[in-house]
## 1
Amino acid sequence: MSTNDTTTEALAIAAAIGTPTILWGPPGSGKTSVVRALADLWALHLEVVVASIHDPTDFSGLPVVTDGGVSLAPPAWARRLADVGSGLLFLDELTTAPPAVQAALLRVVLERTVGDLTLPDEVRIVAAANPPEQAADGWDLAAPLANRFCHLTWTADAAGFARGLIGGWPAPHLPTLPPGWEVGLPAARGLLAAFISARPSLLLAVPEAGAAGLAWPSPRSWDQAARLWAAAGAAGASSETKASLVVGSVGEGPAIEFLTWTAECDLIDPEVLLADPSGYVLPARGDRALAVLSGVAAAVVADPTVERWQAAWEVVGGAASTHPDVAAVAARALATCRPDGAVAPPAAATLAPVLRTAGLLRKGTG
C-alpha cells in the first residue's frame, strides 16, 4: 500500500465521519484531483473555495442592514451547499490565506457556520495546502485553526504517475464505513483515557511558533483521534491508516507514544468482556488495568442496559482488591448511569469502602 493509498483511505474515513481534514503536499502533486475523485465517487456536490483570493467577510458574512438590525449574509457557495443539503467544501491553498482570513475560517471549520448560515451536518470539509516555504507569500496556519484539522501528507508518487500515464488513472479504492460504527467509540475513548492517565504531560502541548501550523495534542485533538481510531477500526482500515489518522490529529511524537503503548497493552475488547465477565483476570500493570476498566465503563455509559451494567460491576468488583484506585474510577462512571430496574450487585457493595476512601461516597451511604 503506497503512502498516497494510505492517505486516500485516511481521508475517506475522516470525511465520512465529518472530521475536517487538510492535505499537505507540494504544488501540482494531485491534491485537488484526489478530492474531486472523492466527491465523484460519493456523488457529492463539490464547492472549491480558494482561500487566498477571499476576504474575511466571505467566511464571517457580509454585514447587511435590515429592518431588524444587521445580518451577516453568507456567500453564494455556502448557500448552494445549504440548498443541496450535503456536499464537500474544499478549501484550497489554505497557507496562502492571510491571518485575518484564517481567523474567519475558524467558525467555518469548527462550528460549520458561514455568516448567519449553518452548513448541514452532511457537508464534509477538506482543505489543501502547500508547505509555507513552497507557497508564494505563504503563512503558517494559526495554531487554533491547525488544531481543528486532521493533517495528512500527500506526496508526488512517481510509480503511480507512470502507471496512470500508460493505463489511465483508476478511481481510488475507498473503505466502507458501516452503519453503527460508533459502537467502537467507547472502547477507543477508554483506551485513550487510560493512556492519558499514564502520560498526563501529553494531554496538551501548545506548539511554539515554528510548529504552530501542524498537528498538536489538545483535549480536542485527542478526542478527534479517538473518533477516527474507532471509525478506522470499524471500516477495517490498515494499521498504517489508523496510525496516520492519530499522527494527523495529535502530532508525530505523542502519536508514536500512544501507538507503542497500545501495541504493548494487547487489551480485550470491552464488548467481549461484557458478554462473559466471569473468570477474566485483570492485567497486573496499572495502566493496562485502567485501559480495560475505562473501556468497559465507557461502553456501558454509551449503552446502559441492566445486563451490561451488572456485567460491568462484576468486572469492576473483581479489580477492587488488586487495583482499588482504578476500580473506584470505573465505579464512579457506572454509578452515574444506573438503568431503571437495575439492582445493585454484590460487587457494588464490595466497592463502597473503596469509593468512600476515594472521596466518591459520603460516610453512611451503602
## 2
Amino acid sequence: MVKYKNEVLNVVFAALADPTRRTVLQTLEQGSLSVGQLAAPHGMSLPGFMKHLQVLEDAGLVSRAKDGRVVSLAIAPEPMQEAAVWLSRYAKFWFARLTT
C-alpha cells in the first residue's frame, strides 16, 4: 500500500470527501459569509454544522474572521493548489481511460 507523506494532501481530500463541506466551499466562492448564513440552507443543528466548518478550517480551506459577535468565513484556496497538482498528474491518464 502506498503511503503519502504529505499530511496536508490527506487532510484536504478528507475535508472534500463530504458533500456538505463541498457545498460550503462552493457557496464561499461568491465571498465571505457569516456562520449563520452558511448554516441556514443545510437543515442541521448549528453544533453539527460547526463540526463541518472545523474540518474545513483544520484543512486550511477556510479562514475565520470575527467582528463583534459575528463570525464570518472566507475561502482560502492555497491548500487546494497541492491537491490540484496531485490531480493534474493523473488527469491525462484518467481522461484517456474514461473516454475509451
## 3
Amino acid sequence: MLLVLVLACAEPAIREADTATAAATVDPLGWEVSESGPFAVGHLAWEVTYTPAAGETRTFTAHAWFPTDDTTGLPVRYDGLVDAQPTVLGDATPAEPAHADGFPVLAYSHGDQGWGATSEFLMLHAASHGWVAVAPSHTDNLLWANVDPPPPAHWVHRPADVTAAVDALADVLPDADTSAYVVAGHSRGGSTAWTVAGARLDGDPAEWCPGCTDAQLAAGAGVGDPRVVAGIGLDGTLRRDQTGATGHEGITAPMLAMSAPDRRDGHQDQFDTTDGIALTWIEVADACHQTFALGTCAALDTEEGYRIVRTYSLAFARRHLLGDTGMDGLLDGSTVLDDRATLERHD
C-alpha cells in the first residue's frame, strides 16, 4: 500500500515554464540538453483501441506529454495510477511547434507491472524541449492489473501497443510528426524498444510465445516499426529467448543502452553479441534499476540520476532524429557530463 501512495504522488503533469515564450525566438537545438527546455508541459490520457496483426482487438490507455505555453491552473498533479478519459490538465493547449516539421516524437514502453508514466521524468524533459512523448499502459502487464504468466502473444502485443500509441497521436495532437520517431523503454520495456526498433522474434516459440497461434508466431517476425530512427534501452536488454542468436540483425537504427552496475553481465553480453549494430552503452556508477524509472536508489540521488539519464537520452534522440551534430561530443565520450557515466561504443 505504501508503494501505491508514493506512486500516486508523481511529478506535476504540467510544469511551469522557465520562459514560456522563448521557443518563438530561439533555435531549439540551441537549448542546453541537460537543462529543462522553455516550455511548460501538458499531459493527457485517452483510450486507444486497435487490432494487432494477429490476435483480438486490444484496448489500452495512452499517455502523452506535450509542450505548452499555458501555465494557468498550476500547479496540477495527476494520479499516474488512474487512467482517465481524454483530458488536458490545467486546460493547457499545445504550443506552436518549435521544429519545422512539427513536434518530434519520443515513444516509451514501461517495465513489467508498470504503467505509461513510470519514467515520467524523461517525458517531461523531452516535452519541455518541444517534443511530444507518448506511452501506452500495456494491458495485462500493469501494476494494478497484471496477468502472470503473461498471456500468449504478450511479446508481440507490447511492441504493437507502442506503434498503435504513436499512430493515435494523429487524433489528439495532429502537429506531432509521426513519420519518424525515437523509441525508448525501461526494463521489460527496454526489451520492447529493441523489438520496435527491428529485432525479430526468432527464438524458440516454446520459450517466448507458448500457446500462440501460427499467425501470432508469424507476426513476431514483423513487430518492428520502420519509422524508428533510434532506440533507447533503459536497463533493459535484448531477450535472447525471444530473438535467438540472430534476431538483432533486423535492427538498422542506432541504439543506446543505459544500465546500472548490477546488470552489467546482461549488458556486456548484449554489447559483445551485437556486432553490426551502432550501439552506445553507458553504465552509470551507483545507479540501480529504478534510476531509470521511479528513482528510488540508495546510492545515487534521484535528481542526479535523472539528470544523467535524461541528458544522454535527449542528446541521442536529438542526434538521430533531428541531425543535431552538436550532441556528438556527449555521445562519443569526448565531452564528460558526469564522471559516474562510462561509455563504450561499437558500430
## 4
Amino acid sequence: MSVINVDKNNFDSVKNSDKLVLLDFYADWCGPCRMVSPVVDEIAEENPQILVGKINVDNEPELAGEFNVASIPTLVVMKHGKVVQQSVGAKPKPQILAMLEE
C-alpha cells in the first residue's frame, strides 16, 4: 500500500482505521525528515497491513499540535485511535519496524 498524505480533512478516517497506523510528521525543509521519508515509503510498500500516513507540519499545524510535535521527524504509531508509540528524530528501518511490533 502506498503512503497517504494526511490532512485535517482525512485525519479522522486514518485515526479510526482498523489497521495499525504509522504517521510521519515532517517538513520539506527538514534534512533528517528527508532521510526517514524513503524508509517510511519502504515500510508502507512492504507492509500492506499497516496504514502509513505523512503529515506536513507546515501545512497541518493543528494536527502537529494535537500530537505535541515539537521536533521533526516525529513518528507516531496508533492502534484503534490511540497513540501506542511515539518517537522523535531520524531512526533506521529496524527501529521503526520495532515500534510497529506489539
